[in-house]
Recover the amino acids of this structure.
């Protein structure tokens, strides 16, 4: 329903730190024309912790207006405050988004039953699909399999974005619940497809969108070897994302490729010269930039 390739879009900024909605609209259109079935707005990649609610709502509205007739728009409405998340979800719903992405509550480390209550309250605020985002590397708490099974009992919880390399848990989601499984780490898309996953909520698809869409198509049609070969060809993309904390490397790559998404809001910072050299090297290896002459 929501698509196979959903790109967690970056938030472009002007030099003064204000949002650049013109570049955001341009980038959203580019992504939809280059492999993305939809975009996730104001997620971690979009630097959501540094965005005000008004800014998030402006991004949701711009996305719906720009690509809403051609692609799905998923609003990042999850926070560590259930009431806040409910309010954002209602407002996003009113703006016409197609679904919401809700991260497990971070920092306050609720017990598993608290996670269930969190999602119950948020899901009750909309009839649109809710994607549960399990990313223990940032949240600290893992949404356990038994808890995911309970989330599957909530009518409009539709999928899990699983940024956790536990293949057994991924298999459980894909094969033992009704929920769609999305890879939340880009290098997990292929192994998750092998387990019955639907696709990915991705960062590298800002640049490698068509290749990722083709990989998923091949796998869906039974050409597993062809899909595996494409996955291996995208090694520079996965290497790029390891250079520094997301979204520092992908924004650097986009700027190098002419998308002018600008910099970051603190506490994120610009890449160092060495990190920028590594980003350029990944793009050169992928044939997307010509090597710089000595």
């Amino acid at each position: 329903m929501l698509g196979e390739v959903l790109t967690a879009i970056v938030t472009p900024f002007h030099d003064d730190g204000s949002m650049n909605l013109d570049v955001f609209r341009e980038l959203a259109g580019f992504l939809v024309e280059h492999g993305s079935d939809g975009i996730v707005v104001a997620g971690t990649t979009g630097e959501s912790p540094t965005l005000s609610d008004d800014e998030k709502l402006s991004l949701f509205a711009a996305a719906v207006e720009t690509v809403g007739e051609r692609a799905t728009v998923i609003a990042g409405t999850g926070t560590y405050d259930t009431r806040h998340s409910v309010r954002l979800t209602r407002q996003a719903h009113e703006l016409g988004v197609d679904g919401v992405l809700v991260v497990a509550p971070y920092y306050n480390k609720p017990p598993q039953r608290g996670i269930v209550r969190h999602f119950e309250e948020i899901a009750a605020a909309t009839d649109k699909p809710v994607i549960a985002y399990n990313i223990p590397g940032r949240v600290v708490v893992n949404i356990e399999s038994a808890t995911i099974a309970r989330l599957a009992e909530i009518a409009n919880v539709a999928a899990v974005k699983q940024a956790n390399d536990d293949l057994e848990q991924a298999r459980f989601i894909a094969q033992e619940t009704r929920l769609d499984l999305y890879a939340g780490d880009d290098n997990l898309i292929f192994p998750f497809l092998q387990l019955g996953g639907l696709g990915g909520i991705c960062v590298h698809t800002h640049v490698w969108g068509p290749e990722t869409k083709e990989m998923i198509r091949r796998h869906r049609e039974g050409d597993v070897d062809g899909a595996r070969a494409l996955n291996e060809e995208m090694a520079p993309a996965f290497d790029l994302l390891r250079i520094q904390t997301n979204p520092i490397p992908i924004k650097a790559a986009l700027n190098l490729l002419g998308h002018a998404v600008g910099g970051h809001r603190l506490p994120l910072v610009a890449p160092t010269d060495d990190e920028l050299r590594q980003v350029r090297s990944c793009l050169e290896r992928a044939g997307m930039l010509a090597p710089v002459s000595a």
